[in-house]
Amino acid sequence: DRIVFCSDGIVEALNEDRDLFGFDRTENAILSGCIAGLPVEQLVNHIIGEVEKFSGVTMHEDDMTCVVLECEMV
Fold first, then answer.
1. Best CA proximity match to 2, nearest among 49, 72, 64, 66
2. Residues 42, 31, 49, 60: is their CA dihedral positive or negative?
3. Burial grade of 68 (CB within 10 A; 0-12, 13-18, 19 or more)
4. In this structure, are residues 33 and 42 in contact, taking their beta carbons and an 8 Å threshold?
């Protein structure tokens, strides 16, 4: 199981048309990385990478922080 924390800088990232990355794209980035079985570090890189692809050359107005906790049941 994983818990993913993302700062508002990810959800509120803008593209050239001033569209928000938003909660749906954030959810899809997390889900696609988890379905692909990415290790924690690669999952963080994947989420940030999806925001970067969406934003293109647009400067970020806020920091982007992503923390992934992986839990193992024992």
1. 72
2. negative
3. buried
4. yes
What separation in angstroms does the CA of 36 have from each of 26, 31, 40, 51? 16, 8, 12, 18
- The per-residue pLDDT for range 11-64, each reduced to its tens digit, is 999 999 999 999 999 999 999 999 999 999 999 999 999 999 999 988 888 899
Return the structure tokens found at 52: 């970067």
pTM for this one? 0.89
Sequence-distant (≥ 6) Cβ neighbours of residue 68 within 8 angstroms: 2, 3, 4, 5, 40, 43, 44
8 A C-beta contact, residue 69 and residue 2: yes
